[in-house]
Design goal:
2 copies of one chain form a homodimer. Chain A has 9 helices and 9 strands. Chain A has 215 residues and is of the alpha/beta class. The structure holds a DNA duplex (22 and 22 nucleotides).
DNA sequence: CAGTGTGAACCTTTTCACAGCA
DNA sequence: TGCTGTGAAAAGGTTCACACTG
């Protein structure tokens, strides 16, 4: 459907450019150069131009990019034009925090259901979304046809949950459990891994001088 | 301090190998081949061998890697041998979820303080850690000297918080706010970005056939 | 033999540098 | 003149393939 294949790192940066463009538009700035956008996105200007070139060319030479137009184009490429529905599996601390997250709705990601095993949570409403018994995943997914499932259960249950989601025909999964999951290739899969990030920080902390001398 | 420079993607995978090795050890498996480890980590075997080769060579040809020894070596390389202290700025839904996260302590990351602006939270204890007024960052950081700060405040405040942390001499920052932050290069910096991940999923959802025909 | 360790080939991504255009 | 768009070069990472060894 989309024009061409965009490299994965570029996809990630497009999301960041979109965020920067929203800010610029909020500030009533109508034109931005690759230099300025690069600075705001924390990358270099050639990178911005190369990234945007995957979407076609609509900068004006000698001027820059029209912010509204560029945001439209970036959003379109990311498929953000139409709203997306999602479910969250696991309504514990993390799941609840995610359900309460305002950013979802603002960006067009709409939670339509949550699941948990805890009897006390089942039937309750968190962040305007109902919590269902986890055994009803297949049934509810059939009814609501969400496009995205977020896994926010403890690591030992994550693979099992993933299997059920896949069996129920989910098209994409975002996993927060610190666990390698086997997911069939036709399902879009991404991972957010707090504990990996901490390990990485730990590594780079050690690489730096253990005790700094001066600023 | 550390032997050699390890590529960033390898650092991330080392964290995953460590996780797999813990599992293997829990299951009383003492030797593992690069093939088996690769399968569990979701990468290919050459990758595993190349990654491990950055740490030296201690596999036994024809046999595999001794799990205990390898885990020790990987943990050491990641700097996980010694415990790390951290603070969390922002004790809202997300910050509280993070404070409650058991995985921290298990892996040797110890929260020593939290900060918030909300008067109702200040003075309370969440997950065994006290919540301080955010204006006391400098003072408390001086006293507790944490190595890592986690930013879990709303995006508009994240840069301001980051500036204070840097001014207070923090050595590393993990940012959860969906916001590009300017951090001086001597501070180790990583970002966890939910909204970016969702955008990426949205992109790949669009790339796939909009309606699937068969399995 | 089975499985590691690693140079070399391959592939992807980033950066450079400049032609081309408003 | 100033800034985009883009080939080409450089850098960085992954995979291959095989010599080597317990």
């Amino acid at each position: 459907v989309n024009p061409h294949d965009i490299p994965d790192p570029t996809v990630s940066r497009l999301s960041i450019y979109a965020r920067c463009l929203e800010r610029l538009i909020k500030d009533k700035i109508n034109v931005v150069s690759s230099d300025e956008l690069a600075d705001r996105a924390g990358v270099n200007a050639a990178q911005v131009r190369k990234d945007l070139s995957y979407l076609g060319s609509f900068g004006r030479r000698g001027v820059g990019y029209e912010t509204h137009h560029l945001l439209d184009r970036v959003s379109y490429s990311l498929g953000l034009s139409k709203p997306r529905t999602l479910v969250i599996v696991g309504a514990g601390k993390l799941g609840s925090a995610l359900l309460a997250y305002k950013g979802f709705r603002e960006k067009g990601f709409k939670p339509v259901a949550a699941f948990d095993v805890n009897k006390e949570k089942i039937g309750k409403t968190i962040g305007s979304v109902r919590v269902y018994d986890i055994s009803r995943i297949k049934e509810i997914l059939k009814k609501k046809s969400p496009e995205i499932a977020i896994i926010a259960v403890p690591a030992p249950y994550a693979q099992e949950v993933a299997n059920e989601l896949v069996a129920a025909g989910i098209r994409s999964i975002l996993n927060f459990a610190p666990m390698v999951l086997k997911i069939p290739p036709q399902v879009v899969f991404r991972q957010v891994d707090l504990s990996l990030e901490l390990d990485a920080i730990s590594y780079y902390l050690n690489k730096r001088v253990p005790a700094e001398k001066s600023a």
